[in-house]
Amino acid sequence: xxxxxxxxxxxxxxxxxxxxxxxxxxxxxxxxxxxxxxxxxxxxxxxxxxxxxxxxxxxxxxxxxxxxxxxxxxxxxxxxxxxxxxxxxxxxxxxxxxxxxxxxxxxxxxxxxxxxxxxxxxxxxxxxxxxxxxxxxxxxxxx
Length: 143
Prior knowledge:
Layout: H1 3-9, H2 12-20, H3 27-40, H4 54-63, H5 66-82, H6 93-104, H7 108-120, H8 122-129, H9 136-141
């Protein structure tokens, strides 16, 4: 099966998710994904890999001391490339990042430990944060 055929079989959400994470694909994969985005008339929502979602960055600023914010941001950015299992939807990246932040209680070592837990099994991290439902993290992030 050709790469183009494979992406044509994907859902709109899967294509959007891939377009959001283009930096994780080969050059051929990126071209194919962007062509599929264009063919479907979808919005790619391609956020640079070196930025966090605004709501996540805001929570970092609320939870962490000034001297730890940069390190916390770097750790969460590393997460964006390291969790290949995490997809939009049920186990979205933002949900996992929020879980790590919540479990950390604003402590940089706590964030490292939370991310280690998430790397073993991100579902354990979601559970530890109390994010068993799909939208629980949204309530916490907006608080």
